[in-house]
Structure of Trigger factor:
Amino acid sequence: MAQTDSKLTWLPQKTFELEFSLPWTEVKKTHDQVLDELVKTTDLKGFRKGKAPKDLVEKQVDKGRLYGEVINRLLPESYAAAVKKHQLKPALGPKITIIKAEENQPWQFKAKSCELPEVKLGNYEGTVRSALVKSNLEKKELTQTQKFNLIAQALIAEVKPDLPELLIESERDRLLAKLLAELQKLGLTIDQYAGSNQKTVEQIKAEYAQTAVNSLKLELILQSIAEAKKFTVTDAEIDKMIAEAGDPKLKQQLNTPSERAYIGVVLRKKKAIDFLTALG
C-alpha cells in the first residue's frame, strides 16, 4: 500500500500521536472495490439483483457507510506501517481521528495510543519480606492466597510506574463493561446498582478506575519481575496445562498459537508469584 510520510509526536506518560495520510489514488481504488461488491448484493427496482449500473447504486448507497467501509479496510494496514516505521510498541488499539477526508485529496488521520511504562522495581524483595515478616507477627499461618494478597498490596504501594491515562481508561472501561453485563442479566441498571450501594454512578466509576490502576500496576510488576529473574516457559509446560483442561474440544481450542502464547504469559506470571510467596 502506498502511504505518505507519517509524523510521530510523543506526549507525557509514554503516550504518542501518529499523523499519517492515505493518497487519494489508494482511497479511490478501495472505494471502487467496495462499490463493486455492493453492486453484486444491491436490489434496485427495474434491475435484477446485482445487475444495476454502478452509478445508480452509488447514488442509492449512503456515502458515510461507503467511505466508512473504505476507512475500515485501509486504516489497519496504514497504521501498522506507521507503527513499524517508528518502531513503536503500542499497548492498546489506537483512538483514530479523521483530520481531513475530501475527494481528490489525500486523507489525513491522527492515531493516539501508548506504550507500557517503565517499571522501576527497586528493592522489591525487601518490600516483600518486610510485608511477610509483619504479617507473621500478627498471624502465625497464612495461606498462599493471603500471602500473595499482602505481597501485592505492598508492591502496589511501593512500586509506582507512571501509568498512561489511556491505559487506565481502557482497563476501567473493560471492568465497567463486565459489571454492566452482569447487571443486565439481573435486570438492573448501573444507577440502581449505585443507589443500592449508597453511591453515585461517578463514585462507582472512580472506584473502578482505582481498581484498574491497581490491577495494571500488579500486572506490570509481575511482568518485570519475571523478566528480571529470566523466568521462561517451555512448550512442555504449556502442553501439560492444555492436557489438564480435560475436555477434548477445549483442548483443541487452547492448542492454537494465540492461546498457547496467552497460556505462556499466565504460567510465567505464576512463576513470579511462586517466587514472591517463597521469599517469606
The domain at 124-277 is CATH 1.10.3120.10 (Trigger factor, domain 2). The beta strands are 7-11, 15-22, 95-100, 107-114.
